[in-house]
Amino acid sequence: MAITNAITDLISSFLELFSSLFHTVFAITNSFVSGILSLFNGFFIFIGDIFKGVFDVVGGVGRFLAGNIVILGIIAAAGYAYVRFAGQQTGRSGRPVANGVGKGLKTQ
Question: What are the transmembrane regions (predicted)?
Answer without folding.
Answer: 21-44, 64-83
